[in-house]
# Entry
Amino acid sequence: MYNKGLFHDWVPKLVMLLLILLFLVVLLLVNPVYSANISFMVGGTGIISEYFMWGIFAQTIGMGGGLPFIMRFKMRFRSKELMITSLVMMAMMSVVIATTHSAGVIIGACLIFGFFKMFAMAEIVLPMRGILSPKGDNGRFYSLFYPIAIGFGQIGAMISAKFTLNVDWQMLHIYTAALLLACALLCVVVMHNLRFMPKMSLAKLDWPASAMLMGTLLCFSYVVTFGKQQDWFNSSNIRLAVVGAVALTAIFIIRELKVESPLIMFNIYKLGSVRLGLVLLLGQGILMGASSVQNIYSSAILGYNWMNNAYLGMMMLTGIITSGVVAFYWTKHNIPLRMYIFTGFSAYVIYYTILYFKMVPGLNIESFMLPQFFNGYGMCSLFIAVWTYLVARIPQKEMIFSVAPLMVFRSVITMTLFSGIIGWFQYRFQLESVANLAVHLDSILMASNPDVGSLSSVQLGALMAANKKLLGYIIIIGFAFLAFILFHQFGYLKYRIAYYNVRNNPLKNTETSENEDDEISEAAGSIAGIV
# Structure
C-alpha cells in the first residue's frame, strides 16, 4: 500500500498543515554556517574567514550533489526514514561544527549537511506544492513559495546574530542540533510507515559522477574564495585547485558521455530558453555579488556591527513581499515573463544608483530603507522570474537530472566567481584611490597641521572612491542587461513587447503531473529555487 502524504490518518488536517509549516521553517532557518556569525567563528576557532565562506558554498554543493538522487531514494526508502535520517545527520553535523577547530572537518560537515538537507526539503516541498498550488501552476507556486524561503533566510540571519550576541556561536549550533533532533522525534510519532511508491534498488546510482561533480565545484569555489587571500596564481594551492577542477571536469564529461544512465542530460543545453536563462543567471550573479560593496561600506566606513548588518537584511523584507505580490498578479493574468524579468534587473540598477549617490561617511541606518526595498525586490523577483523561465521548457522527466547543474551554476559558480572578481577590483581600486589621494597630501604637513587631514580620513576617502567607481561599472553592466532583455525576442515575435500570446507564455502551466516521477521532478525545480 502506498501513501503520498506524510502523516498518519489520525493526525487532524489542521495539525498536518501546522506540522508541514513547522518543518519548513526549521529547514529554512538552520544552516551549518551562518554568515552573520563568521567573525565570531573566526575568533573562536582561529580559522580564517575564507574557510567559513567556503563552507557556505560547500552546503550548496552538497544540496546540488543530492538532488539527482531524490527520486531513486524516494523509491527505495519510506518518507519517514528519509526525514528522520536527514534530520539526525544534520544535527550531528551541527554538533561537529560547534566542537571542531579543523577547517577541513568544517568543510566536510557543511557538505554532508547540505546533502541531507536536500532530502528533507524534498519531503516538505512536495506537500507544500499541493497546498500552495492545487492545480499544479508553477507560476503561482513560485510567487508564493520563493518569497517565504528568501524572507526566512533574512530572518534567520537576524536570529543567529541576536542569539550569538546574547549567548555564543557554539551554543547556537548546539541548540540547532537539539531542534533538529526534536523534529526527528516528532516525525517518529506523526509520520506514517507506508511507502511513496514501489520499492526500487539503488544499484544503478552513479555515485562516482556525483563525487566528481562535487569535487570540481569544491575546487572551483576554493579558487575564487581564497584567490584574493593567497594572491591568486602566485599560490601553489590555487594552481593545484585549478588543475584539480579542470581534470575532474574533463573526466566527468567523458564519463557522462559514455555511461548508460548519465547524471546530467547535456541535451537540455540545446534549448534556447536554457541558454538564455544561463545568460540571465550570469547577470543575476553579477548584481547579487556586487552587494558586497554595501557590506564594505556599512562595516568599514559607517562602523556598523553584525547586528546592524542583519537589520539591513531585514529591511529587504518589504521588497521581497512586494515581488511575490507582483509575481502572483503576473502569473494570474498570464502576462509575458520578459517584462517581469526587466523589473527585477531595473530594481537592482535603481538600488545601486541610490547607493552610489548616498555613499557618504555620516549616513544613518534609516536612509537604507529605500535602497534595501529595491535590493529585496530585485533579488526575489530574479529568483522567481529567471528560474521560472529557465526550467519552463525542460521536459519533466529530465528535470531531476538537469536542475542540479543549473542550481550550482547560479548559487555557486556565478556567486563565487563574481564575488571574488568584485572583491579583487574593489581592492585594486582602493589602492589606486590611495595613490591618487597621496599626491595631494604630505605626511609632514599633516603632522604639523592636524586640521589638514589624517591617515584615517585618507583611508575612508579611498574606500568610498573605490566603492563609487565599482558601483559605476556595476550600474553600466546593469543597463547593458536591461537593453539586452528589452530587445531580445524571448521566444516571441520580434519587437512584441506590449502585445502577447497566452499560448506561448512560459509561466502558464495548467497541466498536472501524470505520474510520481513528474511530481518529484517539479519539486526538484522548486527546491533548487531557494538555494
Notes: The chain has a mean pLDDT of 78. The radius of gyration is 24 Å.
